[in-house]
Amino acid sequence: MSADRIWQRFTPAERMARFVVFLVAAILLAWSFRTVEIIPEFLMDAPEQVADLFKRMWPVDYAYYERGVHAVLIETLHIATLGTIMTLGIAIPVGIMAASNVCRVPALNWLATFILVSSRSVNTLVWALLFVAVFGPGTLAGTVTIAVRSIGFVGKLFGEALEESAPGPIEALRAAGAPWISVFLKGYWPQVSPAFWGIALFRWDINVRESSVIGLVGAGGIGMALDEALNLFHWDRVALILVCIFAVVVIAEVFVTHIRKRII
Amino acid sequence: MHKATESASTSRRPACSAGDKSLVVENLRKEYTRGKPVLKNINLTVAGQCTTAIIGPSGTGKSTLLRCINRLIEPTSGRILVSGQDICTLRGSDLRAARRRIGMVFQEYNLVERLSVMENVLCGRLGYISPWRAWLRKFPQEDIERAYDLLDMVGLTEFARARADELSGGQRQRVGIARAVMQQPHILLADEPTSSLDPKTSVEIMELLREVASVNDIPVLVNIHDVTLGRRFADRVVGMSKGDVVFDGVPGDLTDEHLKLIYGGEDWLA
Predict the structure, then answer these.
(1) Mean pLDDT score, A18-26
(2) Domain membership of residue A144 as a residue range
(3) pTM (two decimals)
């Protein structure tokens, strides 16, 4: 039982650091409570407001579907699908440029990282506002928004999949004298194709959800109908649109899960 | 060290037939970090149907030597002649054309797992056909027939349509050998081809490599750490130690003294 055989998980310095982290967290929490300025009256009658909202939403105006929702719902799916396809065309070369084992030019690696980061750092709604300003309100702005926003996601994950691929087969094809493109097609692509299609489907699934929102700023799709119904206080129509979005998202989810199981 | 090299040069030369397909390595030196050579001054000539086993402890530069020959690793200095052509000065498409004439077999087989056995064998032709044809899988009919012949030779014809990851280790190495021979190489390099295999399969793979050498009339260079196996199948043994060739001769001349020199120590010899 000598003194040097005592074991503790953390060193004294680590214990001190942990204490400081907890203390700072507690101070920040207290501080944020003081700045959030909750108005007690509004907080108290929130349940009442929610009940009121549901009362106005009921019964759902199903009759409105054919007249005002069907076309924009299909448009939403078109925006999501076309936007995803456009993304794939750009994300493949950008992903290849980003993978440092495939593309050995540091300048191109940096360029790819720059494209990927700028695509992801801007929120979808902000991209939508930008493209509505460029192309005017409507489907085109929505499709380009979805495409540009998705490049970062698809390109980054595709590039990472490439970087994780096994180097052995690549070495073998290079040793056989295969040109770069053949090495990519026969060495890298067979290794990453399941990951690639999985990423593409997953992004399409996300894009179905995103494209139903961007209409709020005028970029086409079901979001524009939602915006209109909200502005006119047609709560029964708002309810119908929410039900439709929910249904489409669930169907997309089931569809994507099914396909992913088959390709992996 | 110097004395040992001298004794190597006086030992008997293996009786290998001289052929037009040959490999000459002259004064090859490789440094990963400056001043710390992994290969010091390698001189080696192989020709004909000769199977040469390169033995030596781990980390002595055997793999580096083979990868310098097809320039997967850049040599620091020296010359490498494949059938008379110096490959150290080549770049781009000339280098790729030269690599087609150097077949390589790997310890971990290095097959493309998700492709079929047939397609893996046809990958040996990627240096000859355009990427466009490779993408469309439009391989010339004579390549496909040759691939079937090679699968017959390695006994895997019935697996032509199976995926490479369905095969056992020995079967995969046979595919790896078929892929290398598909290149119609002038020399065949094998980097520890039996190290991941059981003893019986190892013998079969070594027999197959010898057969490849005689059928195609090409020299085969095998890195191998199993001295017994190397001795049994090689016409010539090259012993390496610390980046130098310390023995070069027929297997019969390889004594325990040489092995002590190559591997160091002697307890393991008992």
Answers:
(1) 96
(2) 61-263
(3) 0.83
